[in-house]
C-alpha cells in the first residue's frame, strides 16, 4: 500500500473534467464532469446507449477521451500504478472453461501486489462450495458471482461494476448485493451501472443519471428517486382533460380521443394524493390501477425535463 492510501484522504479517487467521447458521428459522452469520492457507492443509471459503459471504459483506461481529462487516483487511467488499485467487472466476462474456480481466483490475485485473502472473498461471494468446480461447469449466475468476486480480489480502492447482476434471478441478485455491501463496509468505493432502479436503491448512496451521453441528475438517492420514482396510474372511462389539471400530475398520455373510454395513463409522483384529488374532483372513472413506473418510463420524463432545465447537480454543490 502507498502512503496515499490513508482513510483520511478525501481526494476524489476518480475525476472526469469536461470529458467527451465520440465514435464517428456518435457522441457517447458529451462534456461530462464527475468526481468519485472515497468511500461512496455511486449508482450510474441510464437507459441503453446513455454512455455508462463508455464512461467506465475511460476510467479503466480501455478507451481514451476525445476531449477533456480523466484521472484515476490522480494518475492517467492507463498508468500501471492506477490499474493496481482498480477492480472491474465488465458486462460480459470470459472465464477459462477448464480452470477451477480456486485456480481462477489465484490466477487473478497473482497480478496484484496486495491481493485479498482468497478464502475471505470466496466466503463473501458464496463461492466456497464451487471452489473445485471448473468454470465451464458453472451456471450463468455462478459465473457472474465469480466475475464480480474477481473485481475485489486485488484489494482495490475503487471498483467499477458494469451491470453486475443482469441475468440473475432475484435470490442471486440479493446475494450479490449483500456481498457488495460487505465489501463497501470494508472500505471499497464502488461505481455500479444498472438498468434496475431496485438495484440502485439497494446499493447506491449517490446516483448519477445519464441520458444521451450527458449527466441528467447527480444527487443522493432520495433526490433522484424524487425525480424518477414516478407512479403510473391507468384509468378507464375518464376524461383526460379533467385528469390533466389534478394535483401532482407529471404527464398524461392521451389515447385516441374517440377511445377515451378505453384508458388513460397518468404519471404522478404521489399516487395517493392523485387518487384523493381525483375522487374529490368528482370526475367519473373506472378500473384504476397503480404501478411503479419502470426506469425506462421514468427516464423519458427525466429526459424531457432535462431539455427544459439544467441537470441537477446538488451533489456537486454539497461537495464543493
Ligand atoms: N465501439 C463503439 N463503436 C461505435 N459506437 C459505440 C461504441 N461503443 C459505444 N458506442 C455508442 O456510444 C453510445 C453509448 O454507448 P454505451 O455502451 O456507453 O451506453 P450504455 O449506457 O452503457 O448502454 P447499455 O446500458 O446498453 O450498456 C451508444 O450510442 C453506442 O452505440
Automatic annotation (TrEMBL):
Q: Which residues form the ABC transporter domain?
A: 14-237
Note one Pfam family from the annotation.
ABC_tran
Going by the entry's taxonomy, the superkingdom of the source organism is recorded as Bacteria
Q: Does the keyword section mention Glycoprotein?
A: no
Q: Name one GO molecular function term.
A: ATP binding
Keyword Nucleotide-binding (UniProt): yes
Task: Note the topology in the membrane.
Answer: Peripheral membrane protein
Q: Which SUPFAM superfamilies match?
A: P-loop containing nucleoside triphosphate hydrolases
GO CC terms, sorted = plasma membrane
Q: GO terms for biological process?
A: response to antibiotic
Q: Which UniProt keywords apply?
A: Antibiotic resistance, ATP-binding, Nucleotide-binding, Transport
Subcellular locations according to the entry: Cell membrane
Quote the InterPro entries the UniProt record gives. Answer: AAA+_ATPase, ABC_transporter-like_ATP-bd, ABC_transporter-like_CS, ABC_transporter_ATP-binding, P-loop_NTPase
| Annotated protein name in UniProt | ABC transporter ATP-binding protein
Amino acid at each position: 500500500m502507498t502512503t496515499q492510501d490513508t482513510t483520511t484522504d478525501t481526494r476524489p479517487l476518480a475525476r472526469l473534467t469536461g470529458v467527451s467521447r465520440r465514435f464517428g458521428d456518435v457522441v457517447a459522452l458529451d462534456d461530462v464532469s464527475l468526481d468519485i469520492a472515497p468511500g461512496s457507492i455511486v449508482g450510474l443509471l441510464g437507459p441503453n446507449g446513455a454512455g455508462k459503459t463508455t464512461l467506465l471504459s475511460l476510467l479503466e483506461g480501455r478507451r481514451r477521451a476525445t476531449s477533456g481529462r480523466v484521472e484515476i487516483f490522480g494518475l492517467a487511467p492507463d498508468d500501471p500504478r492506477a490499474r493496481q488499485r482498480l477492480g472491474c467487472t465488465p458486462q460480459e466476462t470470459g472465464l477459462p472453461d477448464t480452470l477451477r474456480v480456486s485456480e481462477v481466483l489465484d490466477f487473478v490475485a497473482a497480478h496484484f501486489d496486495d491481493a485479498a485473502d482468497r478464502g475471505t472473498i470466496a466466503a463473501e461471494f458464496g463461492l466456497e462450495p464451487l471452489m473445485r468446480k471448473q468454470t465451464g461447469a458453472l451456471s450463468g449466475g455462478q459465473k457472474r458471482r465469480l466475475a464480480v468476486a474477481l473485481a475485489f480480489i486485488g484489494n482495490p480502492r475503487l471498483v467499477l461494476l458494469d451491470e453486475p447482476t443482469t441475468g440473475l434471478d432475484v435470490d442471486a441478485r440479493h446475494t450479490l448485493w449483500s456481498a457488495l455491501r460487505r465489501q463497501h463496509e470494508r472500505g471499497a468505493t464502488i461505481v455500479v451501472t444498472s438498468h434496475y432502479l431496485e438495484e440502485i436503491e439497494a446499493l447506491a448512496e449517490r446516483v448519477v443519471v445519464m441520458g444521451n451521453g450527458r449527466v441528467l441528475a447527480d444527487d443522493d438517492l432520495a433526490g433522484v428517486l424524487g425525480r424518477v420514482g414516478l407512479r403510473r396510474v391507468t384509468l378507464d372511462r375518464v376524461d383526460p382533460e379533467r385528469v390533466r389539471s389534478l394535483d401532482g400530475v407529471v404527464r398524461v398520455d392521451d389515447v385516441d380521443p374517440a377511445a377515451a373510454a378505453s384508458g388513460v395513463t397518468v404519471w404522478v409522483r404521489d399516487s395517493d394524493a392523485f387518487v384523493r384529488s381525483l375522487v374529490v374532483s368528482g370526475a367519473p372513472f373506472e378500473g384504476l390501477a397503480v404501478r411503479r413506473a419502470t426506469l425506462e418510463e421514468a427516464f423519458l420524463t427525466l429526459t424531457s425535463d432535462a431539455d427544459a432545465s439544467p441537470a441537477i447537480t446538488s451533489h456537486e454543490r454539497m461537495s464543493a
